[in-house]
Amino acid sequence: MKDLFETIDVRKDGFLDMHEWQQTFGRVEQANSKISFRTNALSMWESSREYGQITGLMAKNRKLLAENFRRVLGEGRQLFDFSQGKQAMDDWLYSHFGEALTDEHLKCLFRPAQIHSESQGSPKYDYVRLLEINKSRHTGAQL
User: Fold this and answer.
1) For the chain, how many structural domains are there in total?
2) CA–CA distance from 24 to each of 42, 43, 59, 88 (Å)?
3) CA 72, CA 86: separation in Å to the nearest integer?
4) Exposure of 83 by Cβ count < 10 A (0-12 exposed, 13-18 middle, 19+ buried)?
5) What is the per-residue pLDDT for 29?
6) Closest C-alpha among 88, 85, 131, 127 to residue 107
7) Which parts of the chain register pLDDT below 70?
């Protein structure tokens, strides 16, 4: 069971979310008493070589990215919303990947660091967690 869990936990964050489940097993839909599995473009992208390269570069450049987040958020703040995260990573992403990444791709990159809260509104993310997750993915370190 542990091996299966670790295989499904693509983000290596100790949690299985719907995206990891769907990435592993596809989207389950019921039609005409038959179950079918479908994946979408973003779940396929999360399994791509490009996604791995981006998260690997994030792991290698975590000090620079942390400085960018501190500059955008202010010293001592870790939580950010999508627009703040985009602002913190925009120049770095553009210098490495040009205009190839959409907002949806960026949301996929941020998703492992999403803070699960009961409040409505835009999701919040923890940049320290984001950088640590990518570090652990690419160095084999455990969170």
Assistant:
1) 1
2) 13, 9, 24, 31
3) 10
4) exposed
5) 55
6) 85
7) 26-43, 100, 117-120, 140-143
Distance (Å, whole) CA 48 – CA 11:
13
Read off the tokens for 123: 């999701």
What confidence score (pLDDT) does residue 120 get? 63
Q: Angle 31-47-143 (CA atoms, 0-180°, nearest 5)?
A: 115
**pLDDT tens profile 44-79:** 777 778 888 888 899 999 999 999 999 999 989 999
Query: What pLDDT sits at residue 143?
Result: 45
For helices 82-97 and 49-60, the axis angle rounded to 10 degrees is 100
pTM for this model (two decimals): 0.67
Determine the structural domain holding residue 74 and report its residue range.
2-139
As a three-state string, the secondary structure of the chain is CHHHHHHHCCCCCCCCCHHHHHHHHCEEEEECCEEEEECCHHHHHCCCHHHHHHHHHHHHCHHHHHHHHHHHHCCCCCEECHHHHHHHHHHHHHHHHCCCCCHHHHHHHHHHHEECCCCCCCCEEEHHHHHHHHHHHHHCCCC
